[in-house]
Amino acid sequence: MTVLDKQVEAAAPAAAPRGGRGTAWLIGAGLVAALLVLVPVAGALGAYPIPVGDVWASLQHRAGLGGAGLDRVAESVLWNVRFPRIVLALLVGASLGCAGALMQGVFGNPLAEPGVIGISAGAAVGAVASIAFGITFLGTWTVPAFAFLAGLATVLLVYALSRSGGRSEVVTLILTGIAVNAFAGALIGLFLFFADAAAIQQITFWQLGSLSQATWPKVLAVLPCAVVGLGLAPLYSRRLDLLALGERPARHLGVEVERLRIVLILVIALLTAAAVSVSGIISFVGLVVPHLLRMAAGPGHRFLVPGSALLGALVLLAADLAARTVAVPAELPLGVLTALLGSPFFFWLLRRTRRRQGGWA
Amino acid sequence: MRLLRSRPTPPGPASPGDVLAAADGLHVRLGSRDVLCGVDVDVRAGEVLALVGPNGAGKSTLLGALAADLPAARGTVRIHGRPAGEWSAPELALRRAVLPQAAALSFPFTVAEVVRMGRAPHDSSPAEDDLTIAEAMAATEVSAFAGRPFSALSGGERARVALARVLAQRAPLLLLDEPTAALDLKHQELVLRVCRERAREGDAVVVVLHDLGLAAAYAHRVAVLHAGRVAADGPPGEVFTERLLSEVYEQPVEVVPHPRTGALLVTPKRNL
């Protein structure tokens, strides 16, 4: 027994996981701090510059914490144009990052991402349908609701098609994504064919993945989906960790795997719908963000899920800020910008994995 | 979430000889094939039961049925006295631990994190968890690479880490599917000593083995499976006869006593 005790003692220091909880806390705090800096900066920059100090003052004023209101124009620019857009960027980014982390966990596959495997395109079909046919019976919630239903149907479809024997192989997953993306593209084309000129213009604008039409009603329209999704996701972190062992071992450890999968697929559809219904298809955020965090702090979902939401929000806010400031007075489409930066990362990821383990089988 | 759900009740203590898992007239179908046709097996606390038999005899299927992974087409499986289908997943997790044949992991968790996953069913204190994890890692000799990612390990190291996770679960019924398959001579002995140790502490251990010599040396009882039925069930000294093994494996087999210890040695009959 004494020998065993000694071994136990010797094991203790080595047992501290790499990039442990300390790193996670540090990164989390860093992300929050970066958001606190970037939000007022994003409020300040633009065609009508407002000093950062004034942005703070106005924020404090509205919150009833002193500060001072700005003149009429600045106040209007800040509160009717920039802040809705900032909040929307945060919501969409958080939703995409979180959905990516969840999806990779559920599929047990680091390449699963709403954009890559066609969930965003599926949700877009629902959104386009509601715009093209002028369906408005749910008011501002019509587009998100349609995006959610179509997105949900797509996740279920991809899930059913790409799984065999409890795992989803990368090749099957990607090929399924290609097929789903093609089919969704065809449906969107068909709806455009039937739509009138005004609807076509609205759809085209939306499809480019832009936040330029942000208003408070739009924020309200996606808020329920995003808040419910982001609120539920962290509750399943521990069970997602266990799912990495495979479905049966997870069940052996007490996870009700079927129920977990159904709930998480609903959450993923909610988050994707929230993102897609306002800003079209913004790809790669859900892929890049969880990957970066996994490299920095390890694969544990207790940090990865909320961390991906934070980093996703930060990345999208920064991307949107760049989209509307680098080519003044024109504005780059946000979806174009994220794809431009995200695709090379995807490529690098493929190369790296290929080098390390001879590719994904 | 945890507050809303009542914790599953842990199992009561078992005394040696209690039947912790039992198959009764068990038939299991996989696809269109009857893999098990009428198997009766009792798994008792304080005992190492080895399942042996040729490839495709139904060893892993029987283990899967005893683990409540596979449903019975006919007959029953009882775990801790209750039909397998009536337990919830969290309740089962406190009662049986399963080592799968191949250990897979989707993301690069470290060895320590993987072993810690074995504590998931328990609502115990972190200190208790740490102690159990350290013990399990010491018992399987994986403490040295606690901080390394699981994906960077060799096959034999992975197998031992997977076993450490199963040991950390501290379930009174252990179901191990070929725990020695990827291991070298030393670690095969180590793993089976761990099995004996757990049985001595009152757990029931079922282990699928291909090495009949290991089964003869370490199992209290052996069930020889042949074409979905139990061909023989009893202590290795009674079950391992040249006639039975030669017939089941369709290969002449010699069973001889060890010149020094008198323990059974099982080898294929070779004329080289």
TrEMBL record, chain A:
The chain crosses the membrane at residues 24-48, 86-103, 115-135, 141-161, 173-195, 215-236, 262-291, 330-350. It is a multi-pass membrane protein. One of its GO terms (cellular component) is plasma membrane. InterPro entries: ABC_BtuC-like (IPR037294), ABC_transptr_permease_BtuC (IPR000522). GO terms for biological process: siderophore-iron import into cell. Pfam families: FecCD. This is ABC transporter permease. It comes from Streptomyces phaeofaciens. The lineage of its organism: Bacteria, Bacillati, Actinomycetota, Actinomycetes, Kitasatosporales.
From TrEMBL, chain B:
The keyword 4Fe-4S does not apply. Keywords: ATP-binding, Nucleotide-binding, Translocase, Transport. InterPro entries: AAA+_ATPase, ABC_transporter-like_ATP-bd, ABC_transporter-like_CS, P-loop_NTPase. This is Hemin import ATP-binding protein HmuV. PROSITE patterns: ABC_TRANSPORTER_1, ABC_TRANSPORTER_2. Residues 20-252 form the ABC transporter domain. The keyword Translocase applies. It comes from the Bacteria. GO terms for molecular function: ATP binding; ATP hydrolysis activity. It comes from Streptomyces phaeofaciens.
